[in-house]
Structure formats: structure tokens, C-alpha cells
Amino acid sequence: xxxxxxxxxxxxxxxxxxxxxxxxxxxxxxxxxxxxxxxxxxxxxxxxxxxxxxxxxxxxxxxxxxxxxxxxxxxxxxxxxxxxxxxxxxxxxxxxxxxxxxxxxxxxxxxxxxxxxxxxxxxxxxxxxxxxxxxxxxxxxxxxxxxxxxxxxxxxxxxxxxxxxxxxxxxxxxxxxxxxxxxxxxxxxxxxxxxxxxxxxxxxxxxxxxxxxxxxxxxxxxxxxxxxxxxxxxxxxxxxxxxxxxxxxxxxxxxxxxxxxxxxxxxxxxxxxxxxxxxxxxxxxxxxxxxxxxxxxxxxxxxxxxx
Length: 307
Ligand code: 3HC
Hints:
The chain is α/β, with parallel strands linked by helices. The protein contains 13 helices and eight strands. It is 51% helix and 13% strand. The relative contact order is 0.10. Mean pLDDT is 94; it is low at 1-15. The structure holds 3-hydroxybutanoyl-coenzyme A (3HC). The site of 3-hydroxybutanoyl-coenzyme A has 18 residues, from helix 3, helix 9 and helix 11. 3-hydroxybutanoyl-coenzyme A is lined by residues 64, 67-68, 71, 140, 163-165, 167-169, 211, 214, 246-247, 252, 256, 260.
């Protein structure tokens, strides 16, 4: 009993310490994470490389919040407007990474999947962030231990892996490394629960749980298409109607981003070249070379209307 109480006290002390959250990277994932954190009452700052990108992130959050508000407040347009502006008021934007990190309790990195760039970033903020600040990465496929290796706060480092679209997908993977302290783990798990996600605990293994299953599944579907075994539309229909998935794997690859999917596969193939699940797929590589990244670029396996 005593140990339960003590653990509870420690958790709530850490939990109450997270007030300000810094999201580094305002793309699809970063802006979704900023939205759910601000909706739960956290003060959030999105850090991007320039003001134009900050503005883009804020516009995308405004649109997404509009969809949530319509659902939550049905025909009450006043309440909808109030909800959107209350949440937006809790989200700031900045391009001054070091300045923002000096005053933050939790960092969530959601930038490009490149270990060297992530190392540079964490090395630079480790020097200026307060001692209590927890660092996390939303990496899809890289090792959290590897990302954290350049910092002096390996015990205050973990993974928070979100799913697209972040405001809709209910799962959050919480990754703990061998160095992540109990206090850090409890604090980020509480954060995940407070923002309304169902949290699962993952070891720091490639792809954690979801991507370890989802990426090879999408890759196999592209190989099926490449061999001409079935059309893209038929593969998608098969998995929607035959397995109950909300999207087929080909459209899901477009939705996740063909560049992202290809990068994940490439990274894993380099680390484990004998694994047939991770073998490069010429059809996927060619689409990426042509700049066809899926929904975000207007074309991938399918064509999309650019918004
Ligand atoms: N913001 C806010 N609300 C949103 C939204 C957004 N960006 N996108 C969708 N919604 C809401 C809509 O308002 C709608 O609400 P309603 O049902 O109350 O009207 C609801 O979500 C459903 O949206 P739509 O009607 O537009 O379309 P669908 O019913 O087809 O659902 C989907 C869209 C939720 C994306 C569904 O197709 C789906 O679940 N697809 C699978 C997505 C998936 O697998 N994501 C994980 C990818 S892997 C990943 O992200 C990991 C990374 O590391 C690679």
C-alpha cells in the first residue's frame, strides 16, 4: 500500500510539472500533436525553421479544430468558434528553438526521419533545456536509444509515437529505453492519458508495435501490385471488405506518405539486409524519385485534388 502511495505521489509531482510543451516540426504529425496537447489544456509552442511554416501549421490546426468543433458542438456556431479560438490561443509559433526550449517542460520532436539531423537537434537543445525537461521523439522507425545517445539526459528521454490523423487516431505508443527512468516514463504516460489517448508501452525495437506490422504489410501490398497480381483498387477493396480495415494498404501508403514509407524500409534494410520484409521496392522508389509522395504532393499510387 505504502509503495503504491509513494509511486502515486511521485507521478503526480512530475505530472503537475508538465505545463509547457514544445513541438519541434509543424508538419502533419507535429501540428496534430500540438492540436491535441493544446485541446487538453497544455501551453504549446510549435517550432519551425521559418515563420511561413509556422503559419502553415497554425492554418492546418485551425482547419482540423473546425472539424472537431462541428462534431462536438453540432449546430452551435458560437460554441464552435469559442472552442477553436480557446485552443488556438494556447498555441504559439516560433523559429527560435533554443529560446523556446529554455522555458519548456516537455519536448516532442517530429522532424524528418534522419538520425544525423535528429542528433544535431537534440545535441543543441540538451545544452539549454532546464534539467527537469523531458525529451521525446515521435520517430516512426529509428531507435530512441540511438537518438538519445548524444544527450546527457538519457534517463529523461523516451518515445511518444502518434498516428495520422493525430486528432482521430486513439493510440499512443510510449517507448521506454533501458535508460528511461520510471519517473520519466510515468510522466509521459500521464501526459498521453491526459491528451485522451489509449497508451501502450513498447520496448525500443524497430517500428515499435504498429509500424513493425503495418510497414511490411504495406510493402507486401506494393509488391503484389508491382508483380501485377491485382490492381491497386482491388487490393484496397480486398482489405477493406475482406479484412475490415478502414483504408486499403495502397491508399494508406499514399496517406502515410510514400517518401516516409520508403525511408522507413530503406533504414531497416540497411540494418537488416537479409530480411526479405525490408527489401527495397523499385516501384515505390521510382514514385518517390518522381516526387510522387502520395496525398501530400497530390499524387502517389492515386491522384488527389490539392487543397
Ligand atoms: N482532424 C480532425 N478530424 C478529422 C481529421 C483531422 N485531420 N481527419 C478526419 N477527421 C474526422 C472527420 O471529421 C470525421 O468525423 P465524423 O465521422 O464525426 O464526421 C472522421 O474523422 C472520419 O473522417 P472522414 O469522414 O473524412 O473519412 P473516413 O471515415 O474515411 O476516415 C480516417 C478517415 C480516420 C483517416 C480513416 O480512413 C482511417 O482510420 N484510416 C486509417 C488511418 C491509419 O491507419 N493511420 C495510421 C497510419 S500509420 C502512422 O501514422 C504512423 C507513422 O509513423 C507512419
